[in-house]
Amino acid sequence: MPWDGWWHMGWMWVFWVIVIVAIVLLARGFVSGTRSGSEDRETPGQILKRRYAKGEIDKEEYERKLEDLRR
Prior knowledge:
3 helices, 71 residues, mainly alpha, 2 domains
């Protein structure tokens, strides 16, 4: 019978570990959900500027596409 108390105490530890992990995961999900707002999204002009800066498109294509975006 003395082991009966240890058995219940072990399950109590498991319970609290699960509760703490659940709270941490929920907090991480909440924080990452609030950060994914419109401030993280690039505008088409920013994407175009980034592509030009990386050398993916040349100056003529950049200017042509920028003009298309402005229309």
